[in-house]
Amino acid sequence: MTRLVQVAVAGDVSEAEQLQELLTAAGIESRLEPAVEHDPDVPDDPPLKVLVSESEVDDAREAIEALSEAAEEDLE
Predict the structure, then answer these.
(1) What is the pTM assigned to this prediction?
(2) Which domain holds residue 15?
(3) CATH assignment at residue 49
(4) How many domains are contained in the chain?
(5) φ and ψ at residue 2, rounded to 5 degrees
(6) CA-to-CA distance for 20 and 31, rounded, in angstroms?
C-alpha cells in the first residue's frame, strides 16, 4: 500500500472538493479525511485533510500553489 501524505487542510467541504478537483485535473489521485474529530455540537462542515500518494507530494503542492496564485490574481 502506498503511504498517503497530507498536502493541504481545507477549511470546509467545498474547499476540499475544489482542491480535489484541481488535483484530479492534474492527474493526481487524492483522498479526504477529517482534520479534527467529529464534534456532534458542530455543524457537518468540518475542516478536511487532503492526502496524496507520497510519490506525488511535490506535484500536488505545485498544483495547489498554482491555484492559490491564480486566486490571488483574481482578487487584484
Answers:
(1) 0.80
(2) 4-75
(3) 3.30.70
(4) 1
(5) -80, 135
(6) 8
